[in-house]
Amino acid sequence: MKMATYSVLSGSVALITLQNPPVNALSEAVRTGITDAVQRTLKDPQVTSVVICGQNGRFCGGADIREFAGPMSGPPLVPMIHALEAMEKPVVAAIEGLALGGGLELALGCHYRIAHSQALLGLPEVTLGLLPAAGGSQRLPRLIGLPAALDLITTGRHISASEALKLGIVDQVTDDNALKMAVEFARSVVGQPLGPRRLSTRPCHSPPDVDSVLDQALAQVWQRGRGALAPVACVGALRAAATLPYAQGMEKERELMATLFNSGQARALQYAFFSQRVVGKWQPSGARWDNSTTRTIRKAAVIGLGTMGRGIVVALALAGVSVVAVESQEKQLAAARQMVPEMLQRGAGRRGLDTPPGVISFSSGLEDVSEVELVIEAVFEDMALKRRIFSRLATVCRPGTVLCSNTSGLDIDQLAEATQNPALVVGMHFFAPAHVMKLLEVVCGPRSSPEAVATAMVLGKRMGKVSVAVGNCPGFVGNRMLKPYMEQANFLLEEGATPQQVDEALEGFGFPMGVFRMSDLSGLDVGWRVRKEAGLTEQGVEPTRMRQGQRYSPLPDQMCEGGRLGQKTGRGWYRYDGPGGRVARSDPWVQNFLETYRARHGLVPRRIATEEILERCLYALTNEGFNILQDGVAAGPEDIDVIYVFGYGWPRHRGGPMFHAGQVGLARVLEKLEHYQHSHPDVPHLKPSSLLRRLVAAGSPPVQKWREFISKDRVHSQL
Ligand SMILES: CC/C=C/CC(=O)SCCNC(=O)CCNC(=O)[C@H](O)C(C)(C)COP(=O)(O)OP(=O)(O)OC[C@H]1O[C@@H](n2cnc3c(N)ncnc32)[C@H](O)[C@@H]1OP(=O)(O)O
Question: How far is the CA of 375 from the centre of ligand 1 (A)?
Answer without folding.
Answer: 34
